[in-house]
Amino acid sequence: MILKRLNGLNWNDIEKVSSCTEKVLWEIYSSKNILRDLLTSLLNNKELLFLCEHYDFFDKLVLYKDPLDRFRIRLHVFLPESHKNRAHYHRWVYSSLILRGGYKHAIYGTEDQITQYMDPRDLKPIIIQQVKAGSTYTLNHNVIHSVEAKPYTVSLFIRGPAVKDRFLIMDRKTGRRWWEYGRECESIEEIRRKVMSISRVRKIINKIYEWGLI
């Protein structure tokens, strides 16, 4: 299977990560059978269903989890509330392929350049790009960015292994900032609030078919 190409990938080498993962994303999407099989098998996989989460701004389906948790394949559907002012970084390196819609992608710098104590309202973008359907990109875990997505933008996503326990979110509109933690650091109550119902998973999969993505 094409996912075997990700085994042994050095996630610290961002150029190799970009070259490998973006090709894998395109092959998954180009072969409708692979994406269809991943979505179908999700409905019968309790471990993956437990990792699927609903937020106020997007839904996250986890389609595949490497047995050693070196990487995961996800599908994201962005909802009408995109939280364009929430600058943040991630706990892992990732690559994304936009399947539908698009978004304005703003980059502010790296984690070491911006401290948790600065006023988020002072953050200024250094790069702004329009990411459209058919675009791919790879982002290092230390890059601070924000996304303003068109409603129901869909992306296919590969993330590497977590390299930190938490990440910082900075709201440029309100001035608020707070930490978000990985699943292993969350309480049962926090996890249950985010876990997606099986009916919502089915609804999203039906939408993927309706939109002609598979």
Overview of the structural elements:
With 214 residues, the chain is an alpha+beta fold. It has one domain: Sandwich (Jelly Rolls), CATH 2.60.120. The chain is built from five helices and twelve strands. The strands form three sheets. Strands 1-2-3-10-5-8 form a six-stranded antiparallel β-sheet. The longest helix is centred in the N-terminal third of the chain and has 17 residues. The model has no long low-confidence stretch (mean pLDDT 93).
User: Order of helices and strands, N to C?
Assistant: HHHEEEEEEEEEEEEHH
Helix content, binned percent: 25-40%
Low-confidence stretches: none
What overall form do the CA principal axes indicate? globular
Number of helices: 5
CATH topology (fold) name? Jelly Rolls
Strand order of the largest sheet: 1-2-3-10-5-8
CATH superfamily: Jelly Rolls
Mean pLDDT: 93
- The oligomeric state is single chain
Please count the beta strands (DSSP E, at least 2 residues each): 12
Radius of gyration based on Cα positions: 17 Å
As a percent range, the share of strand residues is 25-35%
Q: Structural class of the helix and strand makeup?
A: alpha+beta
